Amino acid sequence: MNIAVAVKVVPDDQDITVAPDRSLDSSKAHQIASEYDLNAIEAAAQLAEAEGARLVAISASNAKAGDMKVRKSILSRGPEELLMIADDAYAFADSRTTAKALAKLVGDVEGGVDLVVCGDGSADMYAGQVNVQLASVLGVPCINSVTAMRMENGALVVERTLDDVVEEIEVALPAVVGVSPDIALPRIAGMREILAAGKKPATVNDAAAAGVDTNGTVEIDSVVAPELADRKREIFDTKNDGDLDAFIDAVAGVIR
Amino acid sequence: MDFSLTDEQQLLVESLQEYAERYFDDQSVMDMYEAHQVPAEAQDAYRDAGFPFMGLPEEVGGIPTDHVTLGLMTEKLYEFTGAMTPFMTGMLACADLAEFGTPEQAAVIMEEYEKSGQSVAALCLSEPAAGSDNMGMTCVTKKQADGSFILSGQKTWVTNGADVPYLIVIAKDEDASRDNTKMSLWLVKRETPGISTAHLTKIGQHTVPFVEVYFDDVVVTEDQRIGEAGAGWLLLMKNFEFERCLVVAQGLGLAQAAQNDAVKYAKERIAFNKPIITNPRVQDLIEENEIILQQTRHWLYYCLWKLDQGESINADIAMLKSWGTRAHVQLADNAIEIFGGLGYTEEVRVGRIWRDLRGNMLAGGTCEVMDYIAGRAIPKWYAD
Known about the structure:
heterodimer; A: 256 residues; alpha/beta; Rossmann fold; B: 384 residues; alpha+beta; Butyryl-Coa Dehydrogenase, subunit A, domain 1; Butyryl-CoA Dehydrogenase, subunit A, domain 2; eight-stranded mixed sheet; 10 strands; 50% helix; globular
């Protein structure tokens, strides 16, 4: 059995600065694996370990994502191999374009892929659409909001946690699943795994070399930070009659 | 000269940060100081990440690495947790066992770590009347007619001593008198009949339990002797230099945590209508702290690098430990000053760090003993 886990590499949001014109500058940011994709890697790694399956990480991310440290960081958390397209076309690509690139990488996995595991959403755009788009490109079923998964008689059994109900679904493979962050707590990469990561195979190409089409279906006009609101410096004191009601009205006014 | 970290070192630092964030939030750390221990869950997670195996040889299941990386691991663990932990003392005891013990003796390291993340062994060295004055030691083993030995005496300031499955004990061979220079190291199970411990309450470092250990006619056998008979002190001395490096690395990490807190507070705290960090006197304190941090950090990594080159750092680390551990206490004192009255409460952690750092002036030899070591060595560096 082969499992692929999709990982987006994003600039660390702690290092992103906002310019006076509200544009975002991530040029000095370190590249990291997107936060909730770490939970997806962990869930996929646990399933792979339980089933004796081979786990491959796939990624379509920005041009700096091929950095050796990022590769080792991903490979120190369970996957045996990394296939990556590192190209700035994927920094803010729409979900469909990213899904097409990931589908290409799924096709590149030796022996084919039985299951693709995706995180809940990427730390930068958080569209949460790549899992369904990828399933559609691959022509396989997709289940999202997955909070547990196991193999039973050759089929994948997942728990899907919705607002009012937990569904248990059996799905024939191949399939794509989108997992919720609480499916698994990411492991802390140990030094043994970190040292071993440098010896695992990693294939990193730009879009042209990978032979993928980067023409998007969505055009991005601009990406800007929200306008900063000035502090109002209003003080409410419950000792004053009516202040509590005024406070509630003020909060309600903003929310409405 | 290259001051940059390798990818692997950076990833190690990131793993330490993830570990600290997960198990050492403010409330958990306060609970640890209250309970006088690090909970099993945090110790097991430390083991699971492989941190205790760093620096141990491959043959015993370790992850060989250089002294610089071990120093970095120590500094960052202490900075990220802001707390004393038993791990480094545990690592040093395992290093002695792996280096000087037989394969059978060294095998207990992995056997015990299979069971839990708790440290495997504690080193019993100091006595009420002997520490740096090792010849004053009175713990002694006496050979019996059946070939076994009777160990008797008292050890004190034994870090982790009540919480470990094994003790590494140094005792004089046959004769406890001052002029007997023959001492041996022994690997003894904590649960052996005749061994008892009594808790000592420290003024800081509460997360690292500290005990007196009494040996009342404890029977040990030849296969428990670590290394050559009579050579125990010489063996232990081999790792004193590195131990002192780790004491400084711990202090450096805690000092950095205090500085992180102090600078953050100085930026937030408004007095006279502006943040106190704009006050030149506060800036002086912050600058003095930064000088101490940079000075001890560069000096420490120079010592560790020199160790990795196979050179002696006997006097270098003695000077650094004497000056650096004192400077770190001053740094924490400055941090308390920046917090003002709040710094003298238990609402913030700089006071706790100040108490913890005071202990590092004593751990691994007092500042005065360090000065004595360096004071004798330095004149030899200058040709007549």
